[in-house]
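go over this record:
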Amino acid sequence: MKTSTSIIFRIELDHRVANFGQVASTIGNAGGDVTFIDVIRSGKDVSIRDLTVDMAEQSVKQLADSLKELEGVKLINVSDRTFLMHLGGKITTQPTVPIKNRDDLSRVYTPGVARVCSAIHESPGKAFSLTIKRNTVAVITDGTAVLGLGDIGPYAAAPVMEGKAMLFKQFAGVDAFPICLDTTDTEEIIRTIKAVSPIFGGINLEDISSPRCFEIERRLVEELDIPVFHDDQHGTAVVVTAAILNALKVTGKRIGDVRVVVNGIGAAGVSICKMLLEAGVRRLVPVDKEGAIVRGGSYDHPMWQWLAEQPQVGDTGGSLRDLIGGADVFIGVSRGGVLSGEDVQRMAGDPIVFAMANPVPEIAPEQALPHAAVYATGRSDYPNQINNVLVFPGLFRGALDCRARRINEPMKLAAAQAIASVVTESELHAQYIIPSIFNEDVVAKVRRGVIEAAIASGEARRVPPDFRSEA
């Protein structure tokens, strides 16, 4: 499966020798599609144009070489639009009040700030109202499990963390800051996050490899009094659960009756299994590359051992292909190409297939769709994209607004149910089981559901103003 990208080719065209039709034909022959043409300089004999071309990433160099060979065409520059968006970073900080004169300066800084410092020293809880703490989340990684790239280190992980901070702000108004740690030592990571935590109202852990991520999150949840959330685990689990709830409505099946196979029992897979059990799944088959994790088995991986102790987990061993037969639901968070059309045919009637490996799904839509009642992936170019962006902005918005101590299982399940509810019964169908990330109802409904669950479970330290009349 080829990865598509958008490239800007700046060319100088000598109209006395060549015409634009030759350029367009060359681009088309390379598999490119011209989406925008911007005239930079127009002249009778020579013009300069920027051509925005959507094409396979692997063919960019071939097209550039072909354009250079055209008589009357000079290739001035080739720019990747994605890289252009990252120049100089994607976020910045801005003051909330202007400093116009000496009096303003004395209030925001010395000497006036000393009074505010003293007030917080006497009552540390005032940090939520008198500093950025009440609306600020740290997005923290060690760069060991970044997207599908693996262990690429903290420097290369920074663009992802910046992007996450942008999404927090755009979708939920939460100020987030990326912190990329140059260590993979579990104890040092825990110690560092605890040391920087006073200024933050929440911690979003990101792209930390398994199984260290489990211990890091567990310890931080226990030792900090602000929400700690590993998005790769729980964000994925929440949005998968939301999509499953709606997919079951499409197929007319009940969550307590279906047999669910989850393939890939890493950070995301374990959390998906836990969320599905919380949501009511009673027949669960966790499968990793070594085979099924079975009830009563013995495992070195602490979370695999936890799964093996759950009564809803099956006791039959075997590979994915051994166990896929008769399954109602397949959820893949593993690698591309592990499932075939024949495998889907062997599933129960009206099977649900979530193939979320990126960039290549566990099974391509061309193979799955003839047999699957509902098909979803993690990709934006197919229907039913399972995307964490549906979760973390609204979830943290709610947790910050009620000053939750932690994000617990009822809050996660409430977020899943809220996301599912955005798709109304009249809208729901096999190609639309999960709302768009740009649907404005998502953050509002997730926030409300999370706050209600936090209050009900005793995690909220504050009732937001819009909830007080209800209370």
Remarks:
- The chain has a mean pLDDT of 93.
- The longest strand covers residues 4-14.
- The first helix runs from residue 20 to 29.
- The radius of gyration is 26 Å.
